[in-house]
Amino acid sequence: MALPAKDAPVLLRLDGITKRFGALTANDGVYLDLRQGEILALLGENGAGKTTLMNILFGHYVADEGSVLVSRDGGELAQLEPGSPHAALDAGIGMVHQHFTLAENLSVLDNILLGTEKLSALKSARAPARRKLADLMTRSGLTVGLDMRVSQLSVGEKQRVEILKALYRNARVLVLDEPTAVLTPQESDTLFAILKKLAAAGLGIVFISHKLAEVMAASHRIAVLRGGAKVADLPTSQCDQRQLAELMVGHEVSETVRGAGAPGDTLFVLTGVSAGESRESIRDVNLELRSGEILGIAGVSGNGQTMLARVISGLETPVAGSMRLGDRALTHANARTMIDAGLARIPEDRHRDGIVGAMTVSENLAIEAIRKPESQRFGLLRFAAMRDKAKAMIDAYDIRCQGEDSPARLLSGGNIQKIVLARTLEGEPKVVLAAQPSRGLDVGATSEVYRRLLDARARGAGVLLISEDLDELMRLSDRIAVIHRGHLSAAEPTETLDRGTLGLRMAGHTMEAAE
Amino acid sequence: MIRFEPRGPVAVSRMIGVSVTAALAALILAAIPMLFAGLSVFDAYGLMIKGAWGSMFAFTEMLTRAAPLILTGLAAAVAFRAKLWNIGAEGQLYAGALAAVAVGTGLISGPSFVLVPAVILAGALAGGLVMLVPTLLKTRLGVDEVVTTLLLNFVILLFVQMMLEGPMQDPMGMGWPQSEPILDEAALPKLMDRMRIHWGLVIALAASLGVYFLLKRTVWGFEIRAVGENAAAARHAGIPVTATFVRVGLLSGALAGLAGVGEVAGLKGYLTADLSPGFGYSGIVVAMLAGLSPIGVVFAALFIASIFVGADSMSRATGVSNYLADLIVAISLLCVLVSGLFLRFRIRLATSSPAQETAK
Amino acid sequence: ADPIKVAAIYTVPVEQQWVSRIDKALKAAQERGDITYTFSENVANTDYERVMREYAEQGMDLVVGEAFAVERAARKVAAEYPETAFLMGSSFGPAQPNFAVFDNWIHEPSYLSGMIAGATTKSNIIGMVGGYAIPEVNRLMNAFMEGATSVNPDVKFLVTFINSWYDPPKAKESAFAMIDKGADILYAERFGVSDAAKEKGILAIGNVIDTSDDYPGTILSSALWHMEPTVDRAIDAVVSEEFEPADYGPYSFMSYGGGSFIVDESLAPADAVEAAKAKEAEINDGLFRVNVNDSEPKSTM
Amino acid sequence: MSDILEIFMSASFWAAAIRIATPLIFGVIGALICERAGVLNLGIEGIFTAGAMAGWMAVWLGAGLWGGVLVAALTGGFFGLIHAVLTVPLGLSQHVSGIGVTLFATSLSYFIYRTALPDVASPPRIEAFQPLDIPVLSDLPFLGPALFQQTPLTFLALFLVAATAYVLYRTPLGLAIQAVGDNPAAVESQGLSVYGLRIGAIVAGSAIMALGGAFLTMSAFDAFFFGMVNGRGWICIALTVFASWRPGKALLGALLFGAFDAFQVRLQTEVGSFIPGQMFLMMPYILSIAALIVVARRTDYPRALLVPYFKGQR
Ligand SMILES: Nc1ncnc2c1ncn2[C@@H]1O[C@H](COP(=O)(O)OP(=O)(O)OP(=O)(O)O)[C@@H](O)[C@H]1O
Ligand SMILES: Nc1ncnc2c1ncn2[C@@H]1O[C@H](COP(=O)(O)OP(=O)(O)OP(=O)(O)O)[C@@H](O)[C@H]1O
Ligand SMILES: [Mg+2]
Ligand SMILES: [Mg+2]
């Protein structure tokens, strides 16, 4: 990959940034340079302070110490007004946030125009904006329907809108916080192709990712944060994946390997299940899960995985078809009955569906078992018992928190996932539904998730793994089925599949054509 | 630019400090209209304190006014805990009062120990059922409950008027739209001779302990809190969201209904369409002042009642328009609201220079 | 003698027609130096008893008010403060030892204004807008209707209650609706009705207070209430320490000057005025009694 | 039956419907602007009262009618500012702050009115707005009396509906307001001020609400009364949801409400002897609830409604 010239001018400098949240130091004296035409990858565990650092750069947060310097129009570096996104935008910094910052009730065009025009203007100048965007889209390859309502876009499309927003404002520095966390492999590839094109045209780009492979493939330089401090800053050419993983977590990381499985009897069966009405529906889905196997479901997001997971979680009742676990019919079950039947569910959106942020870690660990005798007697809660159990789980699952009584909202994504794992896997469920279980998690947390899922499989549970990450699917699954536009293909042994085939099927090429 | 940082647990000294500051701010702001009306501020405050706490009569009057506020405050607090926005305590209060009157004026007869519980139960049930309508509309059809509960207030008040001019009108009432008086056996007993203070206060205090216990110690309370903080996650974890909303709705309505029972069976003896000077709406204020804490509700209600009764009495003693009382209540409310913020957040004035930032 | 201390408790603001008459009479007594006067207005039902007690505790000699919605409580408080005289608006009778009652017994002038209206209407449709259908309102409306039909059997009435003591815009809308239905005279029990009449150029009948200056050329006739006879008698009784729990209601009758009847002679037919004046004399002489009918009046169209 | 048809055929019925709707139009447009920016404003009932009192008093003191309108708007804006400060940067509960503002605005208005005018036997009157006589238009058969014989404030209300729709959908400001009610982070990441937009919208919305109050004392009537707002503000909160936060539907909702009210007043004189009056009075509320049930499924809420936004907080 072509490197930017060594003497390319520095566009941006973070100068000794320190940021504290109460007792916690999220950024600890971080120095970082970004040159014109350079793609810099920022790595680090969950909670290492990556997002915080970028938020300071963009003015969402004010640093406790240190400053941000930008060169305006290629000139001298000058200090950027802290705490002002407005100033950052003016200085040519564009940011694509970890959580999208789009107004869903507006069109794509209006989202892009937002904030670019004088608020006192009597009319939004949409026509010239359209022309400029048409030009931008052809040059960058970021195409998206300008008149679509954002609420109707897929995640990948939303991502493009976010980048277009920055480009439309003539950004010279582009920051992307985990841009590929929710993208399919193909979408990720497209994105990086675009980023390279933009870098070649002179932009400085910083992106955050947990996926080492793509970091290696797409960046010129890699900076690693650990515990808020920068622990490495190297040209990509001098790095390898193992070394990076160690830098991030501070110790050696072992590869997760799937041993040979011993699939047993059929456990969990979906027959002709249809649910939902919109484009996020599923149609006539058949699925058989055996004990002691991991069945992977691959698919581009928005093809019905969410609905499938909701049906299996007992949140949505199918309009047709049936669902059975062993001899037990579960077609009309709700979440409660699913849990009681021995079905563990790991939700794809762990912040929304996984935890009650305002409640304590211990309460979140007990929430699925709150009506069980272990948590209550005559309707009265048994606090001591709940606490003891929470302490045991915190130890067993290595949940990093300030004690079982701290609010769950303060935990990092990886630790929130551990809470969910702990409470769902605790009762040795027969079936585990894991939807996007490693999304947004760092290397350490991810390997922990993998280990737990493999343990469940070894114990004889059937695991249904819904994921968009092909590496993950290939590594964990015994068989893989592909979901496209609400239809689920027949599962095939992983050994008979390869990335290319799966990618094509996910993109909608028919099974026959692929064979 | 102001910034807020959430605080951890608050020290008692700080709590007291903030409360005192809020009270002082309220006193200073309330002095403005007093001066405008030509009052001597110190005398006025003296009279206010005397009017609410200065004699057994004043004190019991204050408690009498606090009793319905505690109940409507609890009604709001418990509903808001589950993020069920019940703005309809006023209507539920009237429904409770109407039911109490229906049962307590001769529908059934018997000794006190039968009639009093019957009246209480009827009122609670009526209030609960009224709240069930918006709750079911919300859970089944997704209709916004802020609006439905608000609108039902008007419907119920009109219904009460209709009943008071129709089937439930007192035949001995000379045509006035009022109900028959509640039988003596059905009335809540007085707590003291010659004073108006009645068992409604005891019911209110018991209710606040009950709700505290429910929320803190029981599975239902756990479910209410979980649904209120994150309904989606609660649902995913197998908590019956709909059933929880229905329970909360019934409970909230029942508490407001009890307020109506107290006013009609403990205080007035019969029902008129102007039974409540907005207790239902004030309940929301009480609940929020209390930070939705059931025990806090008691103190918030005492506070609001003291301010009102004291200021009302002061306006009478000084001959100033008694609208001043409502005004002082409103000012105190706003001050206390703002002060609550200083307890929950650390407030920093962020300036553009990082150097200054660190200097702090 | 020192002026005696008088307090009044109103459940509505003092502008309301009804209490404004009490307020006016008490203010006049204060002007004369007979009393010192203080009042609380817009007192909620729940608070009424406390306010009564507070005034009694303050050593008021006379407390004036309306007991309508708080009969029982008011009577109980009065009994506990025998030193204070209470003069309360009430639909019931007086009570020992110190609870006297009054009411706005102006059905007589209402009857007379009805006679004028009945004779003046051309469309034979009269609209009536009231607040609530309570006896105090019903009896005046019924007397008015009786007066009108006595001179014009063909006259028809439209009756609406707006279920509020104060909502002039709403009263006005009700009045407009009646004008649409052909009413050419409106009985203005509430504020807002005369405004509609004025705007549409028809006539209105005033009630309780004289608003003819506010609506020149619109107010055809009015039945007025005067509280001075009632209040002054009560004050005299208190001063001379002879206060009795009596029914002061009759002091609102025309013969005592508690009610009066006025007519704008430029708007009414001369013979109608003459007939009404004749009836007025009969009433004052005790030769004619206007019926008291407290039932809710209904539209007759 | 024919009587009922006759009601709908009469121009004065439609004129009444528009007249009754006017304060609601101001109120619902004001509430809509606040809620579009993500803030529920239950201060509306008090702001109506304050607008009614302040506007009237200004005229009574000699400010002239349009001066009164301006004073009412400024008063509304003032109370809106209080609500805005409490709910936006301070992030307090929007319900409570709103009810607090209602208490404050109402009691302050009453107190000022009573303290300024302690000795009024009957409420003092002003020379209120009169229905316009627009050449040609007002003389049209049926349409003239139904639509064009209204006071200037009614036309101002209609103009505000159109202006609000235009601003909301066509101008950068409107887009920003819509965005801040949906996702404040979107606004902040584009360099706009969440607080500024929200505070501005609440102040502007409240100023418009206050005009609804001013209409009551300066157009519908010519004096100020205690309790004269009588729940009209609350109705506007319901109408806003009914209208799915769209100005056009808001106008429609207010007009429907006005028409129903005008209708029930007329119907009451027809059948009042058989059915208790309260039944009629209940109808608008019950119908509003029914309408909400119908639209509930289809509305898309401003997603950030009721959610305070704290900069840089998790
Ligand atoms: N507003 C805040 N208040 C308190 N603590 C915060 C806040 N924002 C971040 N933190 C804490 O600061 C630390 C760094 O968080 P940050 O979001 O920067 O991590 P990250 O490296 O982006 O992690 P991830 O990979 O999960 O996105 C975490 O421990 C987090 O809990
Ligand atoms: N994420 C959410 N946010 C707000 N309200 C919600 C949410 N999820 C559910 N609700 C409310 O809860 C109502 C009830 O949901 P639902 O009936 O699906 O619950 P449930 O768990 O199936 O309950 P039950 O088992 O008692 O039937 C919904 O109509 C909605 O009003
Ligand atoms: Mg992050
Ligand atoms: Mg269900």
Automatic annotation (TrEMBL), chain A:
UniProt cross-references to SMART domains, sorted A to Z: AAA (SM00382)
PROSITE patterns with a match to the protein in the record: ABC_TRANSPORTER_1, ABC_TRANSPORTER_2
InterPro entries cross-referenced by the UniProt entry: AAA+_ATPase (IPR003593), ABC_carbohydrate_import_ATPase (IPR050107), ABC_transporter-like_ATP-bd (IPR003439), ABC_transporter-like_CS (IPR017871), P-loop_NTPase (IPR027417)
Provenance organism: Roseibium marinum
Gene3D superfamilies, alphabetized: P-loop containing nucleotide triphosphate hydrolases
Location of the ABC transporter domain: 12-252, 267-510
Xref: CDD domains: ABC_Carb_Monos_I (cd03216), ABC_Carb_Monos_II (cd03215)
Top-level taxonomic group: Bacteria
Segments crossing the lipid bilayer: none
Family classification: Belongs to the ABC transporter superfamily.
Name the record gives this protein: Simple sugar transport system ATP-binding protein
GO molecular function per UniProt: ATP binding; ATP hydrolysis activity
Record keywords: ATP-binding, Nucleotide-binding, Repeat, Sugar transport, Transport
Automatic annotation (TrEMBL), chain B:
Lineage: superkingdom: Bacteria
Record Pfam families: BPD_transp_2
Membrane-traversing stretches: 20-42, 62-80, 92-108, 114-134, 146-164, 197-215, 284-311, 323-343
Membrane-topology descriptor: Multi-pass membrane protein
Main location: membrane
Compartments where located: Cell membrane
GO MF: transmembrane transporter activity
Signal peptide range: none
Name of the molecule in the record: Simple sugar transport system permease protein
Organism: Roseibium marinum
UniProtKB/TrEMBL annotation, chain D:
Alphabetical list of InterPro entries matching this protein: ABC_transp_permease
Superkingdom of the organism of origin: Bacteria
GO molecular function, one term: transmembrane transporter activity
Bilayer-spanning residue ranges: 12-32, 39-59, 65-88, 95-113, 147-169, 199-218, 279-296
One of the record's GO cellular component terms: plasma membrane
Protein name from the UniProt record: Nucleoside ABC transporter membrane protein
UniProt source species: Roseibium marinum
Organism phylogeny: Bacteria, Pseudomonadati, Pseudomonadota, Alphaproteobacteria, Hyphomicrobiales
Record Pfam families: BPD_transp_2
Subcellular location: Cell membrane
Record key words, sorted: Cell membrane, Membrane, Transmembrane, Transmembrane helix
Membrane-related topology note: Multi-pass membrane protein
